[in-house]
Amino acid sequence: MNLASQRAGWSRLPLRAAAFVVLTCVAILGVSGWREWAARDQVLKGAETEMANVARSLIQHAEDSLDLVDSGVVGVVSRLEMDGADPATIAKLRNLLEARKKAMDRVHSLAIIDDQGNWLTSPGTIASTLSDDSFFRYHQLSPKREAYVGRPVKSLVDGEWVITLSRRFNKPDGSFGGVVLAAIGSRYLSHFYEQFEIGRNSSVTLVYGDGMIIARNPNNDKFVGRNVGDTPLFRDASLQRPSGAYHFKSPLDGAERVSFFKRSGRYPLVLLATVDKDELLAPWRAAAVSRMLYVVALVMLIAVIGAVLVRQLQRGQRMAAALVEKEAHFRLLAEGSSDMVTRIGLDERLRYVSPSSSRVVGWRPNQLIGTDALAGIHPDDRPHVQAIVDAMKRGEMDEARLTYRNVHRQKSEVWLESTMRVTRKDNGNVDGVVAISRDITEQKQLESRLETLAIEDSLTGLANRRRFDERLKEEWARAYRERSSVGLLMIDVDHFKSYNDEYGHPAGDACLRVVAKVIAAEVQRAGDLAARYGGEEFAMLLPNTDAAGCARVGERIRSAVHDAGLVHASSPASCVTVSVGGAACRPAFERTAGMGALVEAADRALYAAKDGGRDRLMMSGEVANLLPRASGQ
Questions:
Q1: Is the backbone of residue 614 left (phi > 0), alpha (psi -120 to 50) or beta?
Q2: Pairing mode, strands 617-622 and 578-585
Q3: CA distance linking residue 152 with residue 165, whole number of Å
Q4: Contact 116, 128 (CB under 8 A)
Q5: Nearest CA among 121, 254, 118, 115 for reference residue 173
Q6: Per residue in 468-515, pLDDT tens?
Q7: Residue 605: beta bridge partners?
Q8: What single string gives the DSSP state of each residue in 140-182?
Q9: Around Cβ 292, how many Cβ atoms within 10 Å?
Q10: What is the dihedral of CA 82, 87, 90, 91, to 10 degrees?
């Protein structure tokens, strides 16, 4: 009976083996298909991420463009409300508007319109009035003073589609006096979008809040002014959020698109960055077909082997056991750590290298085995690593973790973190070292960025107060050793509080960035340092510079800020100015004076400049005459 049962079992084995082969083939096909579909999803998600970055960058560009234009409009409104709209003032402003238009390529036109809708300034002779235009009616009926961004319209000057930004200005009695109008051309925006290479059939579209297209790349002239307000992006409640991915069939060209939209938080604008879905998935399809052909070939091979196994069952069972064991080893390698594992012999040659070396250092295992284990380490880091390895070979250390720079085959250099552990023979003697290494380049770059942020002012890009104090201490000590001089300029923006009150904090921040740029332009030597000292006050450290040199640099800064022509109606100069105080000292000859005395001397000179009427430079004189000498005189 046992024999009969055994034979019955053997008779069922071919069927079981065939079922196993079929299930294996189906599983491989299923897993491969699932992985290809996951790869497809990954491609789509990667495209969404790329489009999100493009959309965020370009909506920021649109906002910045409107902010830049608005700053000019605010200045004109202030001048009109202070000086009135008489012909002399309009003549001056006409020249100013033309100059600003030429200076900013994004500005299509700038104009002033009176309370009846008539042009006071325009790029050409235009007979029509604007009393019926939506922006004019808005300002005429609304006492609000904020900027108004209107729907895209065709310019009366040259017929180009533009987006307008306007502000109301009042007469002295507070009544409606007219509108200052600025426009950004659709062609400028479209040409700017050409810089972003995101695909042959991709597009970038800037849309007004109601669905009217402001600018598009490509085919801007074909689509600008078209209204897409009936699409789900503007009608579907689930898409009325600040930003998000959006898959749709374009009503403009009928192409299936993967996109990301970003709505402006301050203006009625929507930026839609899209990529053609067929174009995006074409490389994936080609690769997927190639990979699936390999998989099908593998499945067919397994099927043939399965047929042989069914006929030769006993041998097949032994082969299956061997395959299971090999598969276990394969899975262990495939699903294990992605870090690079190496074994180093006592001769410091690589005896084993894991396949992940291709990703970590760019070389395949067969290119590394037998080579010097420390050959790729940066010369500055190698002595430390060599000392650790020597100590481990001598048995003084069993484990160590260290970080160092290493040559990469494709990249110039990567940072690696290695955990090393000694291996021993049965008798306890050290016979080598096993190292597990991973790439921490991104982490190091992040650390470097954080260090930069710790010494850099985020608004102006200059050094912050902490960095200034450190450098002042270093330069003071250097000047003392070398018996040289140290110069210091303290710079303060005049009437900055009134500027903030009149034009708002965003304009105040923009003003500080302009002043910072002027100061940074005077950093001519490696040792010079420009810093934001605090609020609207800046400092410039000038090593090896006497009082005369200090004064020359300070006067150039004062003059350059004045010539920048930032409109400041409340300033006596009608523009943003700075007061500059300077001081110079030779620490070796003023041994009782400290760094604080130099800062105090420059600060006193700054206050003297402010007390003397602002927009001027004052030097404290040779600090040697102001500070107590070592001799006590």
A1: left
A2: parallel
A3: 10
A4: no
A5: 115
A6: 999 999 999 999 898 899 999 999 999 999 999 999 999 999 999 999
A7: none
A8: HH----S-EEPPPEE-TTT--EEEEEEEEEE-TTSSEEEEEEE
A9: 15
A10: -130
CA end-to-end span of the chain: 124
d(CA 393, CA 430): 6
DSSP state of 227: B
Please count the helices (runs of H) and the strands (runs of E) in the chain: 18, 21
Return all residues near 16 (Cβ < 8 A) that are at least 6 apart: none
- 102: buried, middle or exposed (CB in 10 Å: 19+, 13-18, 0-12)? exposed
Q: Which amino acid is at 409?
A: R
Nearest alpha carbon to residue 45 among 371, 280, 230, 288: 280
Run of H or E residues at 259: strand 256-263
| 602-606: average pLDDT | 94
Would you call the peptide bond into 572 cis, given omega within 30 degrees of 0 as the criterion?
Answer: no
Q: How many other CB atoms are found less than 10 A from the CB of residue 47?
A: 25
Q: Are 162 and 150 in contact (CB under 8 A)?
A: no
Question: What count of other Cβ atoms lies within 10 Å of the Cβ of residue 495?
Answer: 19
Which range (79-88, 382-391, 538-547, 554-563) has the least confidence? 79-88
pLDDT digits (tens, 9 = 90+) for 159-208: 888 888 989 888 888 888 888 888 888 888 888 888 877 767 788 889 98
Q: Which residue(s) pair with 531 in the sheet?
A: 463, 539
> What value, to the nearest 5°, has the Cα angle with vertex 135 and ends 260 and 83?
120
How far apart CA 474 and CA 249 sit, in angstroms, is 63
Report d(CA 258, CA 236) in Å as an integer: 17
Can you name the residues that pair with 414 across neighbouring β-strands? 406
Closest CA to 192 of 169, 220, 173: 220
pLDDT, position 630: 32
Backbone torsion region of residue 534, taken as left when φ is above 0, otherwise alpha when ψ lies between -120 and 50, otherwise beta? left
Helix (H) or strand (E) holding 393: helix 382-393
| Model pLDDT for residues 518-564, shown as the tens digit of each residue | 999 998 888 899 999 988 999 999 999 999 999 999 999 999 999 99
Which H/E stretch holds residue 595?
helix 595-611
3-state secondary structure 492-551: EECCHHHHHHHHCHHHHHHHHHHHHHHHHHCCCCCCCEEEEEECCEEEEEEECCCHHHHH
Please report the sign of the dihedral spanned by the C-alpha atoms of residue 316, residue 317, residue 321, residue 327: positive
Give the closest residue to 585 by CA, choosing from 557, 626, 529, 553: 626
What's the CA gap between 302 and 17, in Å, rounded? 12
Q: Which amino acid is at 393?
A: K
- Cα dihedral 350, 355, 356, 357, rounded to 10, equals 40
Q: How many Cα atoms are found within 13 Å in the side-chain-facing hemisphere of 534?
A: 4
- Which pLDDT score, from 0 to 100, does residue 557 have? 94
Structure tokens given for 336 = 């294990």
Contact yes or no for 178/169 (Cβ under 8 A): yes
Among the listed residues 609, 614, 522, the one whose alpha carbon sits nearest the alpha carbon of residue 575: 614
Antiparallel, parallel or unpaired: β 256-263 and 243-249: antiparallel
CB neighbours of 502 closer than 8 A, spacing ≥ 6?
78, 568, 569, 570
Could you give the CA distance from residue 176 to residue 343 in angstroms, rounded to a whole number? 83
